[in-house]
Specification:
By secondary structure, the chain is mostly beta strands. The protein has three helices and twelve strands, in the order H-H-E-E-E-E-E-E-E-E-E-E-H-E-E. Helix content is 14%, strand content 42%.
Length: 219
């Protein structure tokens, strides 16, 4: 794939998420749906989770302990890194994958291939390989954590420590991370992305807030 084609693919991803601001107003979720993002878990319950646009950013917010997820099937065939401009306005109280409190104010999930691996539960659908990238306060950076499920094909990684209210640009070697985490020499094509906020395991009220300004895949 040429550099120009890679750029166009990345731009389509950005535009689908609203980060190029072709969005012109109105509720965020219907517009995101028109761009190919499906709302999952508590994403449609505005008493629990709110997605909105502000300051050229997609804003994610939980009002209580809840989890909201946006999923989009987008293919990227040539890449080595992912670059995300994002930030946290409020961390979930007590969130730490290191201590087992698996909550985060914002996560970008990168799915690989269409082959699905067992979730580990009959009640939870199987999933392709994925790496969930998030911002944290104190957890180790670039350490791959397992979740309760998807232990065969899912890893969760804090890629940067974030200062509340300030944006950070995370540039992460996603292809090399896939090889390292899963022991595979070949990296499958990216088959989709997810954007989530999850405070179900947080302490206190479960309130949290974050934003994403840009997502791009680069060679």
């Amino acid at each position: 794939m040429t550099r120009e084609a890679i750029g166009r693919t990345a731009e389509r991803l950005l535009e689908a998420a609203g980060f190029l601001i072709s969005y012109t107003g109105g509720p965020a979720l219907p517009w995101l749906a028109s761009q190919g993002f499906a709302a999952k878990r508590d994403a449609t319950d505005q008493k629990s989770v709110v997605f909105s646009f502000a300051d050229k950013s997609l804003v994610l917010e939980t009002k209580k302990r809840a989890a909201g997820l946006l999923l989009s099937e987008k293919d990227v065939f040539s890449f080595s890194r992912i670059r995300i401009e994002w930030g946290v306005d409020m961390f979930p109280v007590g969130a730490s994958y290191l201590t087992g409190a698996r909550s985060e104010a914002v996560m970008v999930i990168v799915f690989f291939s269409s082959k699905k691996l067992p979730s580990g539960s009959l009640l939870i659908p199987d999933s392709p390989y994925f790496i969930g990238l998030f911002l944290c306060e104190k957890d180790p950076i670039d350490e791959a954590f397992n979740g309760r499920y998807f232990q065969a094909g899912g890893r969760y990684v804090c890629v940067d420590h974030a200062t509340v209210g300030k944006s950070v640009v995370s540039d992460y070697p996603i292809a090399a991370a896939f090889r390292r985490f899963f022991g595979n020499d070949e990296v499958p094509p990216i088959s989709g992305i997810g954007i989530s906020i999850d405070t179900e395991s947080a302490k206190g009220s479960g309130a949290a807030k974050a934003f994403i300004r840009k997502i791009e895949f680069v060679k």
